[in-house]
Amino acid sequence: MSKKHKEQRKSFSWPLVVFGGILLIVAAFFFANQGGDGGGTPSIAVDQQKIDYGDVKFNVNKTFAIKVTNNGDGILRFKEEPYIEVLEGC
Questions:
Q1: How many other CB atoms sit within 10 Å of the CB of residue 74?
Q2: Over the stretch 16-37, which tens digit does the pLDDT of each residue have?
C-alpha cells in the first residue's frame, strides 16, 4: 500500500468513531428518558375523606386503614411523604 492510501484510511476512521460515539450517546439518552411514567396522567383516590371515632378517652389508641388507589392511566409517585391532618373536635 502506498503511504497516501494509509493516511487516507487513518483519517477516515476518526470521524467514523466520533460519529458512532455521538450516535450511541443520543440513543442512550432517548432510551433513558423512555417509559418513565407510562405516558398517562395519574389520579389519586382514597376510600374515605373523614374518619370519625367520636369521643375517645385519653391514652386509648385507635387505628384505622384507608385505601389509596390510582384511578388514572399513569404511574402514581409521591415526591415526599403524604400529608395527613388530624383535626380535634370536628
A1: 14
A2: 778 888 888 888 877 776 655 5
pTM over 0.70: no
> Under DSSP, is residue 69 helix (H, G, I), strand (E, B) or coil?
strand
Query: Which residue has better confidence, 10 or 18?
Result: 18
Using an 8 Å Cβ cutoff, are 67 and 46 in contact? yes
CA atoms of 68 and 54, how far apart (whole Å): 23
Give the start-to-end residue ranges of the domains of the chain: 3-70
Smallest CA-to-CA distance from 40 within 73, 1, 82, 4 is with 73
Extract the C-alpha cell encoding 85.
Answer: 391532618
How far is 71 from 65, CA to CA, in rounded Å? Answer: 19
